[in-house]
Amino acid sequence: MIFRISSCPSFDPHFDAAYGACTFNETKNGCQLLDELRRVRTFSSSPLMICPVFLATIALACNVGYVYLLFTVWRRQERRFQKRDIFLIQRSAISIVTICLIYMSVFVWLTDGVNYTTTAVFLSLSSTNFLYIGGSKVAQSLLLYTAVIHPLFYSTILTVEHCVYIDVFITIIALVQGVRLFLYRTHEEN
After folding, report:
1. Three-state SS string across the chain, please?
2. Which residues contact 63 (CB under 8 A, 6 or more apart)?
3. More reliable by pLDDT, 167 or 2
4. How many whole angstroms from its chain centre is CA 150?
5. What is the pLDDT of residue 166?
6. I need a surface site. Which of 34, 36, 93, 167 has the fewest CB within 10 A?
7. Residue 19 neighbours by CB distance under 10 Å
8. CA dist., res. 112 & res. 185, Å (int)
9. What tens digit of pLDDT does each residue of 146-159 get?
């Protein structure tokens, strides 16, 4: 026996119109699925959704404030950065991008825009962020290793420009990997 969700007793044509044409083999399963779909819709107003957005807002404000403080100090120090500051700015910048991705994913989810392409874009951007953060940690570790083990090289040969080049290299590698992953995922869809 084939059952339409529109014949379910709790079906509301105003809110459930998108699911009205769905069919199932059993009456009980169709009505349960409709109830679960409604519960998912109300999830956006639950504390499990509001708390991460609230914490992301606080983290965004902290990161923007930190970048502002670093640039204020930079201007007062005759436009000179220390080598570690390059990677700290990089880490704050990628944190800001990651938090904006959280906001974008919540917005896309609330506007019912989640589909294969948006999922592939978010996964690609997330992998880019992951590689960017990982590359930053590796670069900072190597910078600290060089400062401790080879202090003469660190103070004379390694300059802020070298750190900027390393940062740009990490960014390019992360972006290329993210684009490659996106193209691979969209190629799988076709």
Report:
1. CCEEHHHCCCCCCCCCHHHCCCEECCHHHHHHHHHHHHHHHHHHHCHHHHHHHHHHHHHHHHHHHHHHHHHHHHHHCCCCCCHHHHHHHHHHHHHHHHHHHHHHHHHHHHCCCCCHHHHHHHHHHHHHHHHHHHHHHHHHHHHHHHHHHCHHHHHHCCCHHHHHHHHHHHHHHHHHHHHHHHHHHHHHHC
2. 92, 95, 96, 99
3. 167
4. 37
5. 87
6. 36
7. 17
8. 21
9. 889 988 888 888 88
Query: Token digits for 94?
Result: 């990628």
Model pLDDT, residue 26: 62
Confirm if 57 and 95 have CB atoms less than 8 A apart: no
- Tokens standing for residue 151: 């202090």
Please return the burial class of 113, using the count of CB atoms within 10 Å of its CB with bins 0-12, 13-18 and 19+. Answer: exposed
Residue with tokens 């983290």: 59
